[in-house]
Amino acid sequence: MRKLLNEYKVFSSQPRPMRMLLLTNMVYAFALPVIELFLGAYIIRKSNDVSLVMVYQLAQGTGIPITFMLNGYLLRRFPISRLYALGMIISGIDMGIMMLMPELSFFGIALIGFIMGLSYGFFWANRVFLALNSTKDDNRNYYYGLETFFFTCASIVMPLIAGYFIASTQKLGWLGGSVTSAYHILTILVILLTIVASVIAHKGRFANPPNAKFLYWKFHHLWDKMQALAALKGVAQGFIIAAPVMLIMKLVGEEGSVGSIQSTGSFLSAIMLYILGRVTRPEHRTKIFAAGLGLFVLGAFVNMALFNALGAIFFVGCLVFARPLLDLAYFPIQLGVIECVAAKEKRNQFAYIFSHEVGIYVGRLFGCMLFIMIARYISEDAALRYALLAVALVQFLSVFVARSILRDGEWCERSRELPIDANTLKEPSEL
């Protein structure tokens, strides 16, 4: 109890905006696993076409950068907390719309995916800016460690409950044995969670970014490297979100298996991540990042070698650890580079948030199109077995890009210690 009380004191000592942002994300974290995992399972169940999950992902990815741009203009008129809340609310409503569709056509799935992309665009664009302005470099490991702890705990509880509920509805005859009715109830739960998270977000007293230009075509060379890192992340992102559901539904069984496997690995991951967030420092980020990438490659290799239920379970288990490790290292690197380059180029920080999303989208577009082409013209098995490993190996190149970014970014940290104004930062050679 003393240790728990001490952890609570550490949390209470953080700035109010940071605490309110963490509480908002904690509530919404319990809605995201249902949206991410079971929408894909629902599409597969209703359409019997695995490639349609990637169509959904591609449409979703297209909606995100469009909303990032729209969000930049709307921030000039509306509070950031309202736009942040809007993104969460739309995600719940969009899930409800999908459940009410009598059948899932190609265009219907694309439209639903695009609307979900709009919701994620409002959510992520404002979430990144709020994290940037609510934290400092020395407490970002703690912030992302605790936030990832919330999301990981939610990924333990919600998939297990939702998967058991869906599976039991069919096996035990709940709700007349209608799996669709079970999805409807889960949708209502998601909508309620998004409403609660939105109410908390409005209590955060968050400041809007300055009303300034945010569209640029040319950037500092350090940001160009960050864009390359974002593109590599995007290539894998489409696969990472959709692949676990597709593998489990194809090789293991049904929604109950999706929830059980996801929850089992997440338990240890949650504890590990909170500890890492508390004890690690900025200089440890490259090692954490490399560990996450290595797990992704290992899981994809075993899945390729076995390509059966055991291989799928092993891959999902590796991914449960890899995703939060990557986030724990990646987001602090991203925010640090934004601070550095924004001061160097004297630009609105939101310009880099939008630019980063464009880089993510380019990579995600390539990854999704690669999967769809292989699944349509070769086979779904080839896409899930070989393309997954190829993407994992490509993403492993990210560790070298991250090292280069941190190495080049050290001059910015050193310059902060010099008795000069932040707007007069100089290049490494000038220092």
Automatic annotation (TrEMBL):
Q: Which Pfam families match?
A: MFS_1
User: Record's superkingdom?
Assistant: Bacteria
Q: Which Gene3D superfamilies match?
A: MFS general substrate transporter like domains
TM ranges are: 21-44, 50-71, 83-101, 107-130, 142-167, 182-201, 228-252, 258-276, 288-307, 313-337, 358-378, 384-406
- List the keywords (alphabetical): Membrane, Transmembrane, Transmembrane helix
> Quick check: keyword Chaperone in the entry?
no
Q: What's the protein name?
A: MFS transporter
